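In response to a reviewer's request, we include the raw inputs and outputs for one of the modeled complexes. The two entities were modeled together in a single run.
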Amino acid sequence: MVIETKDLTFKFDTTMVVNSLSLQVPEGSIYGFLGPNGAGKTTTIKLLLSLLEVQQGSIEIFGLNLQQHRTTILSKIGSLIEQPAIYAHLTGRENLINRAIQLRLPQARVAMMLDLVKLTSAADKKSGNYSLGMKQRLGIALAMISDPELLILDEPTNGLDPNGIIEMRELLINLVTNHGKTVFLSSHLLAEVERMATHVGIINYGELRFQGEIKDLRDISRPKIIIETDHTADAANLLKKNGHEILEVENDHLSINYQSKKGTAQVNLLLNQNDHEVYSIYKDQKDLEQLFLEITQNPRKQ
Amino acid sequence: MRNFISSLQSEYYKSRKTLNFWAAILLPVILCSIVCLGFFVMADKFEKMDGKAIWGLFSGAVLSFMGNLLLPLLVIFLANSVNSLEHKADTWKTLFSLPVSKWTIYAAKYFYVFLLLFVSILLFALFTIGYGNLLGGIAPNLKFHDYQMKGLLLASYFKLFLSCLGILSIQFLLSLIWSDFLKPMGIGFLLFIIGSVINSISWHYAFLMPYSQPAISIKTMVANPNVKGDLPINIFTGEILMSIIISTVVFFAGYYVVKRTRIE
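The model returned the following structure tokens for the whole complex.
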């Protein structure tokens, strides 16, 4: 694992912001850290970057404890936290040169980064006059100038236009696929993360509500058949004997996996032939967005 | 050490286009030029003075103005400028997520202001010496060439530099704590006024007050002005030692503040 936190907990005064968070970010992944605004994403990122001190739990990055190996770990990380922090009185190029000076990097990296984020033509304009999207791109360039192994990006597509979002997505996918980097990015937009992430963690009220590969999340949202019948337990037994996997049995309904329209008709026929009264039978499928909302809109656990 | 030097270079790179940086460079040029012009225009008024007296009057005009007013205000301004740059751009979070220790970042920032102030005062010294010699050349009736006090002037300015280190550390700390530029500046001005009042009533313990120390250092500059030959300069007087002690203590206290700073 590139990032591994164990029971990470952080409070601002008495308010619990991050609660027993155990993240697992594999090497070579794009990990989408999802959650609504105020869920604890930025605080988690600040903990990962050692901007806030760990109060409880532990953080290991590249297999090293963050508190004990802060400088070694940070030398392999590029980050963008909230809105890009740039010196408005300097040009885009000067902002990058300044970072290159701080990190003792060759000046050739500056031109490469400007080219990468398509800011070469605006490189000598004062960055204070940049649009939000240009500032965001400069922020990405600043994060990547040291060619880090791990990129930690907080809402990186904020302020980007649709083209910019697509370019950013392609850039991150390229970095992971062709350059072996790992990307940890936070967002409150599932649709954006879904298109590029290989792994997802969903946080709400500081607690991790889901973590796994993106396909695991899709599996949860697989379609199912909801059947309302007179004796749900008997109907469930009958279906099980006939090779159907039972997902849930309630007093008034049961559910099984959806196969096809024809399959649904056969289930209906089977129940009718065995004297079960079917009051309703229908396909139910939550899309990822709905699932995300369901996960993130659940009230705080007491 | 390499991180410290690159952080220092970065501080210069970031601030080289700001008003604060140029204030430190241009102020000596402007002030010394004005005094020089005044002496040149009113040359006939000073032509009866001997070399030692005219050098004393010429350098005293700059030194006393600096010690009593300009220098404390310049220090307040410079100390705030380096940190306000980060507050304004919201770059503390970026700085502290770089693979550089907080100590290095803090020390480099402090040392940069320290150097900037040193350069500014050195320029004051060089321009005072340079303009004095220039006046001696273009207005031979002014007897600047009869006497040389390079060493004395350098020592005097060095003493003035040491006298404002206490203010430097305090203002640097205040500007770390408050992101609002006006608070540290306002407190600095208030303390400067209190320091001036304390100094004007010649309070016995005024030397303990950092904001009084530059003005006191001017008063204690020459041990005995009536001595024949070179004037003896007293560098390490009570207020200078206090300035160095306060500066050191507050510098380390400032690091403690940085170490405990939460980037929220």
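As requested, we also summarize the result in words. Chain B touches chain A at residues 2, 6-7, 9-10, 13-14, 17-18, 85, 88-91, 93-94, 96-101, 262-264 (CB under 8 Å). The mean pLDDT of chain B is 87.
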